[in-house]
Structures are given as structure tokens and as C-alpha cells.
């Protein structure tokens, strides 16, 4: 599959209908991969931007998750070729139930699930559902071994974040992608963390990654659509 950016969408903000409308618009602009969440009651590790919008969605739709699952079912039905990635929070899986969530992932044919709990990851992997594993900016050997240990996953390769130092000779995207590939990582590799311009996205592409995750930068432009589509088109030109 060709290199693709994966754009993040907060499911249910500002409304479910707006979520579905924006998915249609993204796809019309050539987007082939999107990452969705289902709003958590405790998104304390997320930015204030995400926390506020999750609270807004939960205030509007309550604490259940069927409404978000139904929205994703509709999105899948309308866009059968869209690559769907999910973010999974602990309280969300507790509410839905692990087996039911696994059934749902199979039903809508998710590409990957970002889940922090190793037991949840093992369960999903056992059902043929890919999960995400991280290799940080320090490109640790332990993280590389974990990325090699399971064929049913994707790899998030993190950019510099101000908290960790790189290993000597592993400071660029190209150096790190080449290193982990040489070390035996065969899973799809996606660049993550702080990719906010088309130029930065192109660095990830030229490094040989399979794709890159684009976070809230796009959603912050939802109320300025001309700027949003201009920015999105610039990202999409890199993917082509």
C-alpha cells in the first residue's frame, strides 16, 4: 500500500452528524486513512483541546458508546475502502466489554487499534486485529524487540518530543527507519508526534515509512474550512 497520512478525528465532536460530514469531506479530498476515538470519561493524558471536545461529546450523547459505534458502522458502510484506525481508552473497553469490542473491530474491519493494556492487545491480536506498539525517539532495543515479537501489529515511530534523547547516529527519520528495518522490524511503520507541516510529512515519506499520524492540527482548523482544505490538500500531495 502507498504511503498515507492518517488524520485524527474526535468522534462525536461537535456532533455525530458533523463527524460523518467531515469524513465525507476528507475522503473527497483524497484521504484514505482516518483515526477515530470514542470519547473517554478520563482523557487526562490528552491535550486540553482533546479533553474539552471529549467532554462536549459526552455531555451531548451520554456515557454509552453505541452512538459512536453506530457512527463508525455508517462510515464503514459509506466508505468501504477507508482505512479505519481506533484509539481505545481503558474506561471505554470496560463499558463496551472486550469481547464485544473485538466483535465490533471485526465487523467494521479496523486496520489497527491503539490500546495501552498488554492483555487487551494480546486478546485483539489473537482475534486477528492489529494493535500499535511504540518505538520512542531513543530507539531502544527493548522497544525494537517488542516490535519484532508480533506480526499482528503496526509500529509507531516517535519523533523528538523534548523528553528523550536520541541514540548517536539515529537523529533523523531516515536513520531511525533504516535502523529498525535492519534490526528486523517488518510491521508497517508510521511516524508519530508533532508532524504539522507537509515538509515534515515528506521527511517521513522519504525515510521509507508506510505512513504518518497527523494529530489535532487538522481539527483545530475545522472552523476555518478554506484553510483546512488548503492544508489537507498539501498533505495529500505528499501522499500521492
TrEMBL record:
InterPro entries (UniProt xref): Aldolase_TIM (IPR013785), RibuloseP-bd_barrel (IPR011060), Trp_synthase_suA (IPR002028)
Claim: Lyase is one of the keywords in the record: yes
Top-rank taxon, per record: Bacteria
SUPFAM superfamilies reported in the protein's UniProt record: Ribulose-phoshate binding barrel (SSF51366)
Pfam entry (one): Trp_syntA
Keyword Amino-acid biosynthesis: yes
A GO CC term attached to the entry: cytosol
Pathway(s) annotated for this protein in UniProt: Amino-acid biosynthesis; L-tryptophan biosynthesis; L-tryptophan from chorismate: step 5/5
Record field: catalytic activity: (1S,2R)-1-C-(indol-3-yl)glycerol 3-phosphate + L-serine = D-glyceraldehyde 3-phosphate + L-tryptophan + H2O
Record's keyword terms, sorted: Amino-acid biosynthesis, Aromatic amino acid biosynthesis, Lyase, Tryptophan biosynthesis
The enzyme's E.C. designation: 4.2.1.20
GO MF terms, alphabetically ordered: tryptophan synthase activity
Summary of subunit composition and partner proteins: Tetramer of two alpha and two beta chains.
PANTHER family: TRYPTOPHAN SYNTHASE ALPHA CHAIN, CHLOROPLASTIC, TRYPTOPHAN SYNTHASE, ALPHA CHAIN
The protein's name: tryptophan synthase
Organism: Faecalicatena contorta
Amino acid at each position: 500500500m502507498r504511503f498515507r497520512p492518517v488524520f485524527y478525528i474526535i468522534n462525536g465532536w461537535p456532533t455525530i452528524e458533523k463527524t460523518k460530514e467531515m469524513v465525507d469531506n476528507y475522503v473527497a479530498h483524497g484521504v484514505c486513512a482516518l483515526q477515530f476515538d470514542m470519547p473517554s470519561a478520563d482523557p487526562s493524558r490528552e491535550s486540553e483541546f482533546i479533553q474539552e471536545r471529549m467532554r462536549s461529546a459526552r455531555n451531548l450523547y451520554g456515557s454509552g458508546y453505541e452512538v459512536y459505534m453506530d457512527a463508525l458502522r455508517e462510515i464503514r458502510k459509506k466508505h468501504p475502502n477507508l482505512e479505519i484506525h481506533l484509539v481505545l481508552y481503558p474506561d471505554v473497553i470496560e463499558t463496551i466489554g472486550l469481547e464485544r469490542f473485538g466483535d465490533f473491530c471485526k465487523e467494521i474491519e479496523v486496520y489497527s487499534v491503539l490500546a495501552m493494556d498488554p492483555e487487551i492487545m494480546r486478546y485483539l491480536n489473537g482475534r486477528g486485529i492489529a494493535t500499535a506498539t511504540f518505538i520512542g525517539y531513543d530507539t531502544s532495543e527493548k522497544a525494537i524487540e517488542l516490535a519484532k515479537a508480533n506480526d499482528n501489529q503496526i509500529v509507531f515511530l516517535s519523533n523528538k518530543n523534548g523528553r528523550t534523547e536520541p541514540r548517536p547516529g539515529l537523529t533523523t527519520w531516515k536513520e531511525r527507519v533504516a535502523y529498525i528495518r535492519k534490526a528486523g522490524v517488518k510491521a508497517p511503520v508510521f511516524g508519530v508526534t508533532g508532524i504539522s507541516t507537509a515538509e515534515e510529512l515528506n521527511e517521513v515519506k522519504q525515510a521509507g515509512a508506510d505512513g504518518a499520524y497527523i494529530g489535532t492540527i487538522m481539527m483545530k482548523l475545522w472552523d476555518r474550512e478554506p484553510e483546512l482544505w488548503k492544508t489537507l490538500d498539501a498533505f495529500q500531495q505528499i501522499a500521492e
